[in-house]
TrEMBL record:
Superkingdom of the organism of origin: Eukaryota
Predominant place of localization: mitochondrion
GO CC entries: PAM complex, Tim23 associated import motor
Keyword entries, A-Z: Coiled coil, Membrane, Mitochondrion, Mitochondrion inner membrane, Protein transport, Translocation, Transport
Gene3D superfamilies on file: DnaJ domain (1.10.287.110)
Name this protein carries in UniProt: Presequence translocase associated motor 16
Underlying gene: PAM16
Species in which this protein is naturally found: Nothobranchius furzeri (Turquoise killifish)
Pfam family, one: Pam16
Length: 125
């Protein structure tokens, strides 16, 4: 009886192990394909996300911005910064998130500007 139970457990572990390994391989392949699709701009954006600790999507959600325009970023930043001022009953934590979101979005704008300059230089030559 114990022998059969041990065999069942070993077989179950092997099946789960193979499924886990297969899922890991698929996830790695999907990650590599996404990285290739993002290309160089994606790498810079990912680096900026890593440095700031905030993704582009999170920064856009915090400042309630759908498109990256400097005017809209500044307008929403000023409003949210004032609303969350500690002296006005706001939260320093939320205020700092607003500041980090603005920094992240400005970094993304810089990355896009650099890419546009490079593509213009490449098209001129």
């Amino acid at each position: 009886m114990a022998k059969y139970l041990a065999q069942i457990i070993v077989m179950g572990v092997q099946v789960v192990g193979r499924a886990f390994a297969r899922a890991l391989q698929q996830e790695y392949a999907a990650s590599q394909a996404a990285a290739r699709a993002r290309g160089r701009t994606g790498q810079q954006s990912a680096a900026a996300s890593s440095i700031s600790g905030m993704s582009l999507q999170e920064a856009q959600q915090i400042l309630n911005i759908s498109t990256l325009s400097p005017e809209e970023i500044q307008k929403n930043y000023e409003h949210l910064f004032k609303v969350n001022d500690k002296s006005a009953g706001g939260s320093f934590y939320l205020q700092s998130k607003v500041v980090r979101a603005k920094e992240r979005l400005e970094e993304e704008l810089n990355i896009q500007t650099q890419e546009q300059k490079q593509s213009q230089q490449n098209s001129e030559t």
